[in-house]
Structure formats: C-alpha cells, structure tokens
C-alpha cells in the first residue's frame, strides 16, 4: 500500500453517543471526508464525467475516540485493477499519533457518469497509485 494523503479532522461534540465516545457510524464519515479530500488533492475534476463508486466499505474499531480532539486519517491506495482499487485508512489522534484508533477503507470502482458503467482507471490515477 502506498501512503497517498493525510487529512486532519476535528472531532465534534455531536459526534459522541450516549456511551461517551464517538459513534461508530461517524468513523465512516471521517473515512469518507478524508477520501473526498484526497480526490480533490489529486484533481479528480480533471477527469470530467468520471466518478468513483464505493462497492465495499469497512471499519475495525481498536480504541474508542472521545471528544475533544483532532484526528489524523492516513489514506493508502492499493494496487489498481482494471477499473477499481482499494483504499485503506488509519485513524489516529493528532495528540497520540502512534496509536491506531481504527482501520477502515473501501474498494472503489471508476465509473463513467454518462453510462453508469465501470470504466478503466485513467492513466494519471493509475500512475499516482503505483508510483
């Protein structure tokens, strides 16, 4: 896996649940936010009419996150297939960067928006993932 992006996201008080820690569903929002920031960073708009679609998402919770604080989401890209690639991510606190609080990610498929069908990964994306 190749490290491709790191995102810093503040935890919000509203992210907490009745148990006093960040709700499990919010972790998926953190992963999504980091993934979308990475897409903007690599210039997804250069591939007009193309999008990624999540076909599988997962998250394993290691240590409970509690407010207040900021998290760091490290995003890694896996070996690309013809139309898809794996994104793996680690969530850490910025004040405790050596501890992995959660691991997650998604398999995404490159899709042509006009047809709704999968499309080969653009060479620029393939090169960025494998470089």
Automatic annotation (TrEMBL):
Highest taxon of source: Bacteria
Name under which the protein is recorded: Acyl-CoA thioesterase
Residue stretches in coiled coil: none
A molecular-function term among this protein's GO annotations: fatty acyl-CoA hydrolase activity
Taxonomic source organism: Oxalobacter vibrioformis
Alphabetized PANTHER family for the sequence: 4-HYDROXYBENZOYL-COA THIOESTERASE FAMILY MEMBER, LONG-CHAIN ACYL-COA THIOESTERASE FADM
Gene3D superfamilies (UniProt xref): Hotdog Thioesterase
